[in-house]
Write a structure and sequence with these properties.
Shape: flat
Number of helices: 12
Strand content: 35-45%
Largest sheet: 5 strands, antiparallel
Number of strands: 52
């Protein structure tokens, strides 16, 4: 690769060296041609065959190609004249490169340029027109012309002047200029001279028409030099100047003098007839006193030549005179703490054009009728006085070093108890040419008019500017600094002879625009479907125009936006038909006739319930609930016994039963006091069923001698209460006979009873009975528990002691002795007494005189007027079934 790169470099160097040699073997004609724009250029390339043979590269014309810059000219534009000559014809344009080359490809690959030329494209010069000359102060002569169409290519212009029969001097203009200047003495005065301009370039030549002048007639003098301007009398200025052409001794000059005040842009000129004669000074008269004037002058040859330029401006001030105008005078009446006095501020304006000098001060004279109340000398433009309710006349004059001005009179009206307000002054305001105009209808009774105005304030007592107008005027513009987009409150006062005034006010703008900011919206109140919005108006200084209306745009977080328009005077608005529990975004726009401006965005969220809606739901619900509770209470009071029967039945207190006196499980009083329910919560009382046949096997004597406290005293009785006799609750029948008959034919029902040792806190043990007709199991009898019986008697139990579930051997010995035999009528009572039920504790009482049939223990006839009491049935710990 490195060898290949070296070979390429050597090859390029060889080809470049050959190219330099080939350039001497060809030639192109024409050399550097100028081509008229829009025409063709034809060029020829001539080959020197002998030169090419020596270089070892013989070529023919057919191998040549032409290029403009780096652009190849198509072969269709070529013409091969012979082996040594090739030509090309094409139309050059301004966008083409201006080089043309003739080339060939050496060794069939590398381009080699044989020869090249540069060409130019342009236009031939046109005839110069409007040739004119002017002589500046007879020192230089300058002629100008119009060259016509741009020739594009370099063109030479020359000015020729001819005297009769011979040419004098000529001037060549610099490239790009259309004028040429000759300096004295290369031109002659007082001799007719012809002038002509010639234009020439590579494409042609053109000459202008001849013009002929006597140079003295085309002289433009230099402006005169103002020597001095002085004030010689009141209203008189004297101006002196110097001739600008003294060397040429040209005295036939006329002058033009102009002047203006310093604050004005309009010039006044002295008539030409007053300055035609040769002179070097002039006096201006009837000028304003104590006024600064600006003065300028120029000159001209009489009947020939041109006006000179205006001279440098000079200023001067006229002398003072006494003021010619009275100052504008006005007053502002203010109330004081005293009802008999008034504070009056006298105000006036400084004199401008009518001052006629420097104002040194003002004289103020206050009169009450013919009496002079006070006379003051003031250097300021305000003065405060205190006056009574009477009418006053105030006279004001201004003075300078030359005297005093005419007086300005102001009437201060008296204070009347009953004042009839005059009708308001009607007028209109409009803007025109950047000024604010006030237009009204003048009145013959008015002494004058005062226009007051203040900006960015709607108060009549604002700090006001003012101006006074004469009585015969019906229109005036405000002579203050009136700006667009600023609010103005204008008041027009018509002064009457008695000092009273008619007035009227109007609001206006010189020009209205879009407000600078919009109002900020706040939420005053909000409900479920409504919201009240409040806002403050846009500050007056930010309104930039009259607010026509407000636009409220509001939208929910998800949903389309809505727009409503409210009046410009409104300060709050209520939105309706809103969705509950929804957040809204609100934007308010203040609009004028020129457009609107949005205020800052705000938001609010509606309530889930309307005000009072919750109360409307909760209060009736509470009232209904209270009524329901009240009805339940009334029903409870009326049905208390029935409800008590189902919810809280009457349960006897086993602790007060006599059965606790003979229970073998009752602990001795001397025993340690331990919890009565440690051994078990229940003591079972089982009731067995005795058939009719078994009943017959017992005699009355057996029943009478039966010991209910000993085990197996009766074969047909068994007890689940520690071996006590079976306590069978008698079945009630309608009559004794019916009960006996039933007992003989059917088996009696034996009830199972259980004493509950637990229960509600503080409640004594209870019995539970069962209506089951099933016989007791053998295990229920527990005969082995009572085999060993101690002769020792147990202490009688107290009513508050409880039973235990089972007996031990020690307990058997504590069973009390058998009770003595009792009559049959007392047997039932004794059994119940042993069970712990007495007459005082809901025990079953036998009817007096009624015999108890031992053969029918299961049947007892209880009187109907006594309460029927049964042993409690199957009561478990923590609950019981109703009796």
């Amino acid at each position: 690769m490195r060898r290949l790169a070296v070979l390429c470099v050597l090859w390029s160097v060889a080809i470049a060296a050959d190219g330099l040699s080939f350039q001497s073997c060809a030639n192109i004609t024409p050399q550097s041609p100028a081509v008229k724009l829009g025409t063709n250029l034809t060029a020829f390339c001539f080959l020197d065959q002998d030169c090419l043979q020596e270089l070892g590269h013989p070529i023919t014309a057919s191998e040549l190609f032409w290029m403009v810059g780096k652009t190849l000219i198509p072969e269709s534009h070529y013409t091969v004249i012979n082996d040594s000559v090739s030509s090309v014809t094409f139309e050059p344009t301004l966008s083409m490169h201006n080089s043309l080359t003739c080339s060939f490809k050496a060794y069939g690959q590398t381009e080699v340029t044989l020869h090249g030329i540069y060409f130019s494209v342009g236009n031939p010069p046109e005839k110069p027109e409007n040739l004119s000359c002017i002589c500046d102060d007879a020192k230089s002569l300058t002629c100008t012309w119009e060259p016509g169409r741009d020739p594009i290519i370099p063109t030479k212009y020359s000015l020729h002047q001819y005297w009769p029969e011979r040419e004098k001097e000529k001037c060549e203009a610099e490239a790009g200029n259309n004028f040429c200047t000759l300096y004295y003495p290369n031109f002659m005065l007082y001799i007719n001279t012809a002038f002509m301009v010639e234009a020439e370039n590579d494409l042609g030549r053109a000459t202008s028409d001849y013009v002929q002048y006597d140079v003295i007639n085309i002289v433009k003098p230099d402006p005169p030099d103002i020597v001095s301007v002085s004030a010689v009398l009141q209203g008189v200025l004297r101006i002196e100047w110097k001739n600008s052409m003294p060397n040429l001794q040209i005295k036939d000059l006329k002058y033009n003098l102009r002047y203006r005040t310093k604050d004005s842009s309009e010039w006044s000129e002295v008539p030409g007839n007053d300055l035609e004669n040769t002179r070097d000074s002039f006096t201006l008269q009837e000028l304003q006193p104590y006024t600064t004037y600006v003065i300028s002058i120029r000159c001209h040859l009489i009947n020939r030549g041109f006006w000179s330029e205006w001279s440098k401006e000079h200023t001067a001030v006229t002398l003072e005179t006494a003021p010619s105008r009275a100052p504008e005078f006005w007053r502002k009446i203010r109330k004081t703490d005293s009802e008999e006095k008034r504070a009056i501020q006298l105000v006036w304006k400084e004199l401008q054009s009518g001052a006629n000098g420097e104002i040194l001060g003002y004289n103020v004279t206050v009169k009450r009728g013919p009496e002079v109340v006070g006379s003051y000398t003031v250097t300021d433009t305000t003065y405060n006085i205190t006056a009574s309710k009477d009418s006053y006349e105030v006279v004001l004059t201004a003075y300078n070093s030359q005297g005093s001005s005419p007086p300005s009179t102001l009437i201060i009206p008296p204070v009347k108890d009953k004042v009839v307000q005059p009708p308001a002054m009607k007028f209109k305001v409009f803007s025109q040419d950047g000024q604010l105009w006030v237009d009204w209808t003048p009145s013959s009774r008015a002494l004058g008019y005062v226009i007051e105005w203040c900006s960015n304030s709607q108060s009549v007592d604002c700090s006001r500017e003012w101006q006074r107008e004469p009585s015969n005027t019906g229109r005036a513009f405000l002579r203050g600094d009136i700006k667009p987009f600023v609010y103005y409150l204008i008041r027009l006062n018509a002064l009457q002879k008695d000092g009273q005034e008619r007035s009227g006010t109007l609001e206006t703008y010189l020009e209205q625009g879009v407000p600078e900011l919009g109002p900020k919206v706040d939420t005053k109140a909000c409900g479920k479907t409504w919201a009240t919005l409040v806002w403050d108006p846009v500050p007056l200084s930010k309104q930039r125009g009259f607010i026509t209306n407000y636009t409220i745009k509001y939208e929910a977080s998800s949903g389309p936006s809505k727009v409503i328009t409210v009046n410009a005077t409104d300060r709050e608005h209520t939105l309706t038909s809103l969705a509950g529990k929804t957040t809204y975004r609100v934007t308010m726009t203040a609009n004028t006739e020129k457009g609107g401006k949005d205020g800052p965005q705000s938001g609010f969220t509606t309530s889930e319930f309307e005000k009072g809606e919750i109360e409307a739901i909760v209060v009736p619900s509470c009232i209904g609930f209270l009524l329901f509770i009240l009805v339940l209470c009334v029903l409870f009071c009326n049905k208390k016994e029935q409800i008590k029967k189902h919810i809280w039945p009457n349960v006897p207190d086993p602790s007060k039963s006599n059965i606790a006196q003979w229970s073998p499980q009752t602990p001795s009083r001397h025993e340690s006091k331990r919890h009565p329910f440690q051994d078990g919560p229940f003591t079972d009382v089982s009731v067995v069923e005795i058939t009719a046949d078994e009943k017959k096997s017992y005699s009355d004597s057996d029943l009478k001698s039966m010991d209910p406290t000993k085990k197996n005293t009766s074969a047909g009785l068994s007890s689940g209460i520690g071996g006590s006799s079976c306590l069978s609750s008698p079945q009630h029948s309608v009559s004794d006979s019916d009960g006996i008959s039933s007992a003989q034919n059917t088996s009696s029902t034996v009830q199972y009873s259980t004493v509950i040792m637990g229960g509600y806190q503080g409640q004594t043990p209870m019995f539970s009975r069962s209506e089951s007709t099933q016989p007791l199991l053998v295990s229920e009898e527990r005969p082995d528990e009572l085999q060993q019986v101690s002769e020792e008697e147990a202490d009688p139990p107290t009513p508050s002691q409880y039973f235990k579930q089972s007996f031990t051997t020690e307990d058997v010995g504590k069973i009390p002795d058998p009770l003595p035999a009792a009559p049959a009528q007392d047997l039932s009572a004794q059994i119940l007494h042993l069970a712990g039920f007495s007459h005082g504790h809901d025990s079953l009482d036998s009817t007096a005189g009624q015999d108890l049939n031992p053969d029918s223990l299961s049947q007892v006839d209880v009187p109907s007027d006594e309460q029927k009491t049964y042993l409690p049935q199957n009561v478990r710990q923590g609950g019981y079934l109703p009796q």
